[in-house]
């Protein structure tokens, strides 16, 4: 299983998110960072951005470090992507989420991963 740390949000992306003054700015940074194109499917674009913004908001309100924010964001994104692409039933999606979460829940030295 590929690690989620810095997979989607690198330190410079999180700095740009921190510099955003409002939710519209956060949405813009996320859209640029994740290369979301609204012309492909405007409704999907809007829903995904709302999901991503809420994940960032949750991480900030929970006091996550930038490392934890990056890993959490990618865990949520990967779980959503896998569920949508493979049309996973709820149980399989939950199992996938738990596996991702457990792989990132314990801080270990790099050589043990």
Write structural notes for this entry.
The chain is an all-alpha fold and 113 residues long. It has one domain. 68% of the residues lie in helices and 0% in strands. The chain is built from 5 helices and no strands. Pfam families: CLAMP.
What brief labels describe this structure?
single chain; 113 residues; mainly alpha; 5 helices; 0% strand; globular
Helices and strands in order:
Elements: H1 11-19, H2 23-33, H3 42-61, H4 66-86, H5 90-105
Short description:
InterPro entries: CLAMP. By secondary structure, this protein is mainly alpha-helical.
Q: Which outline best applies?
A: globular
Task: Count the DSSP helices.
Answer: 5
Structural class, by secondary structure, is: mainly alpha
Order of helices and strands: HHHHH
Distance between the termini: 10 Å
Unreliable spans are none
Estimate the helix proportion, in percent: 55-70%
Regarding quaternary structure, what we see is single chain
How many individual β-strands?
0
Percent range for β-strand residues: under 5%
Q: Average pLDDT, to the nearest integer? A: 88
């Amino acid at each position: 299983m590929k690690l989620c740390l810095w997979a989607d949000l690198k330190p410079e992306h999180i700095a740009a998110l921190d510099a955003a003054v409002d939710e519209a700015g956060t949405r813009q940074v996320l859209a640029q960072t994740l290369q979301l194109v609204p012309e492909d499917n405007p409704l999907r674009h809007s829903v995904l951005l709302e999901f991503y913004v809420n994940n960032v908001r949750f991480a900030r309100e929970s006091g996550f470090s930038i490392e934890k924010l990056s890993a959490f964001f990618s865990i949520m994104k990967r779980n959503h992507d896998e569920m949508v692409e493979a049309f996973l039933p709820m149980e399989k999606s939950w199992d996938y989420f738990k596996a991702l979460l457990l792989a990132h829940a314990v801080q270990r030295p790099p050589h043990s991963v």
